[in-house]
Amino acid sequence: MLNDIVSLALEKNFTVAEDTAAYITLLTGKDPTTPFNEWKDRLPVVKPTLQKVIKSSSEENEKSEIFNEIEQFFVANHTPMQCMEFIINLQTKIKR
After folding, report:
1. How far apart are the first and last CA of the chain?
2. Within the chain, where are the H helices?
3. Strand 24-27 to 15-19 pairing
4. How many CA atoms lie within 13 A of 77 on its CB side?
5. In whole angstroms, what is the distance from residue 6 CA to residue 61 CA?
6. Angle at 93 between CA 92 and CA 96, to 5 degrees
7. How far apart are CA 15 and CA 57, in angstroms?
8. What is the DSSP letter of 77?
9. Taking the model in full, what pTM does it have?
10. Could you say which DSSP state residue 29 is in?
């Protein structure tokens, strides 16, 4: 089986660098990363906009603040009117 591979490799102009009973090492003369680099160079470059990153970060911070407010607001220690005002305040923040 290995002899068939060596024969085929030689037909295709590969250089047989090493041939043992267990494996064959072929040299192609090309850098193995060349096909990848050629493919990568053909890809269009898309740069994320900084504005979206900042927006996502600020949205995460705002969500974190809202969760902290809810966590620290003890309903048992507030009047129904204070609870209603708290909910209205949260809804206003969420709608922004």
Report:
1. 70
2. 2-11, 34-42, 50-72, 80-95
3. antiparallel
4. 3
5. 62
6. 90
7. 54
8. G
9. 0.40
10. S
Q: What is the pLDDT along the chain (96 residues), one digit of tens a residue?
A: 667 777 877 787 777 666 666 666 666 666 666 777 887 888 888 776 666 555 567 778 888 888 899 999 999 998 999 999 999 999 988 887
Q: How many residues does the chain have?
A: 96
Q: Which token pair is 57?
A: 């970060």
3-class secondary structure, 46: coil
Number of Cβ within a 10 Å radius of residue 60? 10
Nearest CA among 69, 73, 91 for reference residue 82: 73
Tokens 């470059």 -> residue: 45
Q: In which residue are the tokens 């072929």 written?
A: 26
Chain centroid to Cα 20, Å, comes to 42
DSSP 16: E
